[in-house]
Every structure is written in C-alpha cells, then in structure tokens.
Amino acid sequence: MAEPEDLSALMRAARKGDDEAYRRLLVLVAAWLRLVASRGLAAAGRPRADCEDIVQETLLAMHLKRDTWDETQPLQPWLRAIARHKLVDHLRRRGFTDHIDIDDHAETLAAPEAAEEGSALDARQMLAGLPDRQRRIVEGISIEGQSAREVGVRLGLSEGAVRVALHRALRSLAHAYRKGRT
Amino acid sequence: MKTEQLVASLVADRARSSAPLGRSVVRAVALGSLVSLAIFAVEFGPRVDLAAAFATWRFDLKLVLVLVALFAASGACIALARPLASRSWRRGVAALALVALSGLAIELIMAPSGTWGTRLVGSNALVCLTAIPLFALAPLAGLLLALRRAAPASPALAGAASGALAAAAAATLYAFHCFDDSPLFVLTWYPLAAVPVILLGALLGHRLLRW
After folding, report:
1. What is the ipTM of this complex?
2. Whole-angstrom Cα distance, residue A82 to residue A97?
3. Which residue in A67, A157, A167 has the most chain B C-beta atoms within 10 A of its own C-beta, making it the best mutation to test that interface?
4. Cβ contacts of B15 on chain A, cutoff 8 Å
5. How far apart are CA B161 and CA B167, in angstroms?
6. DSSP summary character for residue B163
7. What is the pLDDT of residues A41-93, one digit of tens each?
8. Residues of B in contact with A142 (CB under 8 A)
C-alpha cells in the first residue's frame, strides 16, 4: 500500500470537481471503515456479515453529509465522528447499547488490510426497493460502469435529469439503511 | 451491490447543497423572523416611547443582551449541527454570561434595593412569557428544516440550540415592545420564556434531525 495520503487534500480536490480524487478518497475510507466496522462488530459480539452493510451505510452518510465538513479542520476527526455515529446507530438498532470506542484504531486510517468480503446481500434488496427509473440509473452507473450521460442516452433522459434521479436514489438508499430492515 | 460499485454512484452524484451550513442557518432565522415580525407588527407593535427609550442605558443594555444572545446561539447552533462540534461556540456563551452578570451588577448598584422587587416583577411578565415563544415558532421551524441536511452529533442538542437561537431572535423582536428594561426583569423573564422553546427544539430535533 502506498504511503498515507492527505485525505483533507483529496476532499478539497473533490469539492472542486476532481472525480478521481473523490473516488480515491472513498476507496481509502471504505477500506478503513471495513476495519473499524469489523472490530466494532467483534467487540459487540455481532456476526461479521453486517460489516459491509455498515461500510456502505457510512459511506453514503459521508457522501450525503459532506457539506458539514469544515474545510479549515482536518478531515479525519470528521470521518471518525461519522463512523462512530453510524456504528453506534447500527448496533443500537440490534439492541446493543454498550459504549463502542473506535479511537483505538483510528490511527490506522489509510492503512487498509482486508479486501471486501463478498457483497452485501441487503444492498441488492434495497436497490430492488427503489423506484424503477432510480434503480436502473444506479445499476447502470454502479454495476455496468456507465457514465451518467450514457445512462441518460439509454433511458432517454438528459444528463441533468439522470443526476437528479441518482441523488434521490442515494438519499432513498441512505434512508432505507437507517430504517434498518433486519 | 459491492462497495466499490456504490463508490461509482457516489462519484457520479455531484448534487451539492447551495450554501454553507452557517449561511443557511442565518437565512432560516432571518426568514422565520420575517413571519414573526409580521405578527409583531399586527398584534404588538413597538412601544410608544421607543425613541426616548434609546437614550436610556437600561434599554440599550437590553438590546446588547439580546443581540449577544443571538450571536452566541447562532454559533452554538452552527457548531452543534456538525458531526464533530468545534468548541469555539462556548466563547459566545461565556461572553453572554459576562454581559449578563455585568448588567446585573450595575443595576444592583444603581437601583435602590427597595425597588428591586418591583423591577423584577415588572409590568407585563405574562406577555413576555407568551410573546417570546410565539415569535420563536417560525424561526424554529425554519431552523429545523434547514438542519435536516446537517449531521449533528446529537440531534437533541442541535434541536435545543435551534430552540435557543429561535428564542434569541424572538427576544430581539420582543425587546422593542416590552416596557420593562431593568436587567432584573430581562434576565429573569426572557430566559424563562426561552425554556419551553429550547425544550420543544430538543424534542423535535431528537425526532427530525436523526441521520
């Protein structure tokens, strides 16, 4: 793994419209979240199967709430606060109310270990719960790897309309996660 | 859907909120206060001796108090709307406490002790206790709407701070109607009137600001 990158700089670049920087940031953060989530689950005696769900729910929250990061502050404490909030929230939904401390391994950010283990089954179910057009847009971009414009051409929509529907879809996904189906 | 695949959708989503958090909080308070200003204009109106009141130190101090409260509560509300609240908002609250205590000390020195009771009870405490919560409703609603896109570490606390900010905005309006200028009155009844607003904000925040 390359040496740790300046996550704050990646987020600043992402805010200025650098998609590659944003993709890099999200991948790094996802790997770190996987570590935090699996340790949190182990500490709470929960099965690891929930791990990828927590990673995805937290990534979604970071994405949708990224405007709450104050650029004058470092990014990592903000990331930790969101990760802690989401982990505690997830465990609380499953009846676990003890204190979980993620600060112990906070320093390992940007030093990912395990790769993603399989995909989250629930995520596919939730995708199925989206309105048809939103689901096809997310599938087109995420699973088939198309650009927003390509999806638009296929569905007969403008690129702008695709992006609006995509944003709604992500918000619905975040909402579905928060309601916690299991 | 794999996480790596989800990332592709996140990168493709460029929707941003139009304004930084601080600006949308200020806008929400301003818009809500316009509604309250309309109620103020129709039902209450400024005190008749407003021009003369500006020349008295007690009225001026009252304005300073409500404006410092407005400033302090804005800082608290914006900070507590974030996942990681910076602590700098406490400085605003400390400043408010300092102004309040100084005002109280000056009043206790200036006013004969025999008049303290009457000054504290004032002439329209009941109006104060109803008008401030009434004027706070619209700003509070605006704030809670604006904060739905925030990510407060504690939704209840962010709601309480919204309530405090809405009450401070309401108190600023009400100060122009109220005849009671003694710090003894202002520091007793204005905070008491803010309590139900803060509690309502905490309750609604707990329900509406979860994320």
Report:
1. 0.86
2. 18
3. A67
4. 163-164, 167
5. 10
6. H
7. 888 888 888 888 899 999 999 999 998 998 888 999 999 999 999 998 888 88
8. 1, 5-6, 8-9
